[in-house]
Design brief:
The chain has 566 residues and is mostly beta strands. It is built from 3 helices and 45 strands. A hairpin with a 2-residue loop joins strand 30 (385-389) and strand 31 (392-394). The N and C termini lie far apart (123 Å). 24% of the residues are buried. InterPro entries: Carb-bd-like_fold (IPR013784), Cu-Rt/internalin_Ig-like (IPR014755), Ig-like_fold (IPR013783), SbsA_Ig (IPR032812).
């Protein structure tokens, strides 16, 4: 019995040992298989210098710049795997082939299958921009072009230049430059311009492989990528004269602008939460008037404000317990548009919210404090203002309405250094024309003793007789106008007296029709926008400084984009 138990235990140990050995061998076998698979996998290299080399072309079939081209397929072979990037934006073909070719990547090859619609005796250029990149790092082969001719001659003439904005003079990127034979000027039609290129980030463009001929050239900042001018929503530039192309032409510079829509439209109409009615038009309205047709009381007491450019209007009415209004907009005393506007479910809160200038809580003895509001102000009741210097109530301040704008009030005081001021507008201190009132508002102020104001005088020379110029003081970004002055040959100076310190730019507009505004152009009538120049530096107004500069306006004597440079 004892011997039998010992033998059973010994056999059990041998069995366990055998199983462990087999499991160990199996585990090692699985590990070896895993290592083999891992070694066989293509791995992205780690460490080392970053790959920055674009793919190189090893072979082009047929060869680039081939003549008498009859092939149906182009094969371009690279030194590494490639892929196409942003093909719709980067690739372009000129002239248009009628139907789009088919692009396929097969490992290191790019295959281009051409349509059957190629013209005879025509030079075609396929531009790839930055759309050919290596597979792993995405390095682009920049500005590669494949060129071929279906005739026995490669067209080789070129046109180059720059595109800017007509109003800001900033260079314009991603603008289409279109070249159209004079015999088929299709910029306004349904047929796409088929000779084109796109400006780079510096606004430069170049059209290559052109044949001799007479053309019209346009720059188009389009929205739907159809290479057709679709109206005033798209910016366009052009040369007044056609181009006779017999040699390479450089410096064919264009300026783009938005034209005036042919058909007037009220783009937006709505009741605002403050009770006003906003109207936005698709163009400027000349001598506008706005009347209410279906509400005599509201029409009699209404207040209408048109924007400085007369392309929008804000309407204020006394009775807002209405469902809708029917308005008529007139231009030069003639009906222009009938507008039906419904109030809908807008929750209106008629209250006046005061606006303070300056809005940084620091006042000075030159501009003092201005109080205005979006809503028309009828009156500010001084008895409902609490003016404190430190903690003491003061009443010897001035409250006066502006002589030029009755919606602005001035609060003037002999502000003093190291004093703290507070002005409290108690509820009802400000009253609007239709009974609106303000809620309680407190404003804390301190005196800015830096006296950061200076004088700046400009004298302008080389003005044309019988011509008005608009001198605009603007910010560095060119998107805010602080002040506009009119000058002419008899009154050629502008003086900024005690003007706030800071950096400013000057824009001058030749106001040919003397309407006080910059007027745009019309591509169909071949008229250009009114000429604009910027003075060639930024001006800094410093505290207690007097500066004087003189500038020539000879650059506004003629439009520089009407003629082709010789």
């Amino acid at each position: 019995m004892t011997t039998s138990l010992k033998e059973n235990k010994s056999g059990s140990k041998r069995l366990k040992s055998s199983l462990k050995t087999r499991l160990l061998i199996l585990s090692m076998f699985i590990m070896l298989i895993g290592l083999s698979i891992q070694c066989a996998s293509i791995q992205q290299p780690t460490g080392g210098p970053k790959d920055s080399i674009p793919p190189k072309i090893l072979l082009e079939s047929p060869t680039n710049f081939s003549k008498n081209f009859t092939a149906k397929k182009i094969v371009i072979t690279f030194d590494e795997y490639i892929k196409l990037a942003n093909q719709q934006k980067e690739f372009s073909i000129t002239p248009d082939m009628g139907s789009n070719p088919e692009f396929k990547v097969k490992k290191k090859n790019l295959e281009i299958t051409l349509p059957d619609s190629l013209e005879k005796n025509t030079t075609y250029s396929i531009y790839f921009g930055k759309g050919l990149v290596d597979y792993n790092a995405g390095n682009a082969l920049v500005n590669y072009a494949y060129v071929f001719a279906t005739g026995d001659k490669i067209d080789s003439l070129s046109i180059s230049g720059n595109v800017k904005s007509a109003i800001t003079k900033e260079v314009q990127k991603d603008v289409k430059v279109l070249l159209i034979p004079i015999s088929q000027d299709s910029i306004f039609g349904k047929k796409k311009a088929n000779i084109f290129t796109t400006t780079d980030t510096a606004g430069n463009y170049k059209l290559n492989n052109l044949r001799e001929g007479t053309y019209r050239i346009y720059a188009l900042q389009e929205k739907n990528n159809d290479r057709i001018y679709n109206g005033a929503d798209e910016e366009i530039g052009f040369l007044k004269d056609s181009i006779v192309l017999e040699r390479d032409l450089n410096n064919i510079n264009l300026e783009i602008f938005k034209g005036t829509p042919k058909k007037f439209r009220t783009q937006e109409k709505k009741f605002e939460k403050n009770g006003s009615i906003l109207l936005i038009f698709n163009r400027r309205v000349d001598k506008p008037k706005l009347n209410i047709l279906n509400d005599e009381v509201n029409n009699k007491d209404k207040i209408v404000r048109f924007s400085n450019t007369s392309d929008s209007a804000t309407l204020f009415i006394p009775n807002l317990k209405i469902d809708s209004l029917k308005l008529v907009l007139t231009e030069n005393e003639r009906p222009l548009d009938t507008i039906l506007i419904r109030k809908g479910n807008v929750k209106i809160e008629q209250a006046i919210e005061p606006i303070f200038t300056p809005n940084n809580g620091r006042v000075d003895r030159i501009t003092h404090l201005q109080v205005s509001a979006f809503t028309p102000i009828k009156n500010i009741d001084k008895t409902k203002l609490k003016f404190k210097e430190d903690s003491l109530i003061r009443t010897n301040y001035q409250l006066a309405v502006d002589t030029a704008n009755t919606n602005i009030y001035h609060i003037r005081y002999n502000w003093r250094k190291d004093k703290k001021y507070q002005i409290e507008f108690t509820e009802g201190a400000i009253t609007g024309y239709f009974g609106e009132q303000n809620k309680e508002k407190k404003l804390d102020l301190t005196y800015d003793d830096s006296e950061n104001y200076g004088d700046l005088t400009f004298d302008f020379t080389d003005l044309d007789s019988n011509t008005t110029y608009l001198v605009e003081l603007i910010n560095e970004k060119k998107d805010k106008v602080y002040r506009v002055d009119k000058i002419n040959m008899n009154n050629p100076a502008v003086v900024y007296k005690q003007y706030p310190g800071g950096k400013y730019s000057i824009r001058v507009i030749r106001d040919d029709n003397d309407n006080g505004l910059w007027d745009t152009g019309d591509v169909e009538k071949k008229t250009f926008p009114e000429p604009v120049i910027y003075l060639n530096k930024v001006f800094t107004i410093r505290a207690n400084w007097e500066q004087k500069d003189s500038f020539s306006l000879s650059g506004l004597k003629k439009r520089i984009i009407e003629a082709i440079p010789k």
